[in-house]
Design brief:
By secondary structure, the chain is mainly alpha-helical. It has one domain: Orthogonal Bundle (Proton glutamate symport protein). It contains 18 helices and no strands.
Amino acid sequence: MKFWIKMIAGLVMGILVGSYIGHNSIFLEPLRTGGILFFRVLNFLVFPLVFFTVIRNVIYLRQRKSLFIVLVKALGYFILLTVVGATIGVVLGDVLKPGMGMNINAFESPNVLHYPETADFVQAIVPDSIAGFLKSGFAVLSIVFVSFIIGSGIILAKEDADEFHGLIVSIDTTLHKLTIIILEFLPIGLFAYIGYLMGFMTKFSILPYLKLVLIVIGGSFIQVFIIQALLVFFLTGLNPFKFVHAVLPAAILGYVSGNGYTAFPALVECMEYNLGTDRQVFTFVSAIGTAFSLSGSGVAAGVSTLFVAQAYGLDLSIYLQIIIVFLITVLSLKLDGLSGGSLILLSIVLSQIIKLPAEGYALILGISAVIFQIETLVNVVGNAAVSYVLSCSVESASKVRVRDFL
């Protein structure tokens, strides 16, 4: 049986079993434990996988004098996709009006969400010690910075660093082999965690937001199949459906976990084994994309902002809607390592526009987990799209060969 069929089967079985057992079942906790343990193993791999792989990428790209060019292009593409996503979200929210008829009196004042000041964000990129670096967790920009420093040192040391360079290559290869082994159990992990999620949720917690969720799904569909897939097609000539098929395992993992960092190991293997890209380039771009690929968060934040405005009976002018798109794009640049991108973006946008209620993001707290899942799927596909386009631009992608692995 093909791997992607196993994944779909695990996802569907998890949905069916979770929906059947209900939120009071004794099987709910074992499913939750099994799913969380699997995702923890993947999360454990993210830090060393990014660290050692990016060191190899930095050495390769600096030797070819294309590191800066690849970095600038990557940031440009990621920002462009976020702008497009936010625009899609705002337009759909304005036309379809998901917030009409909401009962805003049923919600309490929310807790304040954390959003870093610019100075704190920049300082956090540079760790103050080795211990601080190891505790950086999902702060990918900090890992990339340290990897750049070490990679540059290896280049400057030349033949004196050959043994150290060989050790890094060996560790990186070992980690990728380990990732492949772990991902073979991905269908089981998906079954357990999605079964828990479906058992935990009830229809009463979803129905009031059904229109909002459907609009976010519609905007996400446009972003994935019309914007991102066609971007790949026009710039590389790759069949859009073949591209989506190739990154499907990483996208599903991102959807189920609601975390782009958890999906990173699967994305790396999908890019190499399914799309034939050279790991020497695309993992550097995809590591950057894990922090900046927020096209899905842009869609969700755009729709959610209009949802809140309509729930409070406010009419936003075209000028304010343009400001909202601009704010979402700019604010997304400081979300590295922070979960729940669209909710954080929404809370900051509401606090920046006087006409909107700053506490309005409480309206979507009850459905935020579902929205996180949808936006993460789009973020992962957007990351893959930019990574593949840039790999092709530096001639480091071979003929596509969707294999029977991922």
